[in-house]
Design a protein that fits this description.
Shape: globular
Number of domains: 1
Bound molecules: tetrahydrodeoxyuridine
CATH superfamily: Cytidine Deaminase, domain 2
CATH class: Alpha Beta
Number of helices: 4
Largest sheet: 5 strands, mixed
Strand content: 15-25%
Distance between the termini: 33 Å
Number of strands: 5
Order of helices and strands: HEEHEHEEH
CATH architecture: 3-Layer(aba) Sandwich
Structural class: alpha+beta
Strand order of the largest sheet: 2-1-3-4-5
Helix content: 25-40%
Oligomer: single chain
Length: about 120
């Protein structure tokens, strides 16, 4: 399944709308019900309105009624591994206290979890 998620994350990264950074990111989210939701980053000329790939995938899933997640793969089209930004970590933690996350680059892969990436996250 992880390989399938990696392929999906790579594929959706091709849709990244990144005229400002040129930094393509793709995310693939597996739900407990077995569905895969993908997302890419979508930039804006008003830079702060940019939506990261992880949040695009999560918001797509939630708006389709899915809030229970099993696994997330984040791919960046770079040699170096890039870790999710703080905003995305907080959004992930809203739905899962221990989601398995695999971070993938063109040449590397790193397995972690939201528990490790965001210890003591904010939760109401
Ligand atoms: N980006 C993501 O898609 N996910 C992250 O976790 C960090 C950053 C995107 C946002 C922007 O389009 C580009 O990477 C550079 O910041």
């Amino acid at each position: 399944m992880k390989q399938k998620l990696i392929e999906a994350a790579k594929k959706v990264s091709e849709n990244a709308y990144v005229p400002y950074s040129g930094f393509q990111v793709g995310a693939a989210l597996l739900t407990e019900s077995g569905k895969i939701f993908t997302g890419c980053n979508v930039e804006n000329s008003s830079y702060g309105l940019t939506n990261c790939a992880e949040r695009t995938a999560i918001f797509k899933a939630v708006s389709e009624g899915e809030t229970n997640f099993k696994e997330l793969v984040i791919f960046s089209n770079t040699e170096e591994l890039f870790y999710p930004c703080g905003a995305c970590r907080q959004v992930i933690s809203e739905f899962s206290s221990d989601l398995k996350i695999t971070i993938v680059s063109l040449t590397d892969e790193f397995e972690t979890s939201i528990r490790d990436l965001l210890p003591h996250g904010f939760k109401l």
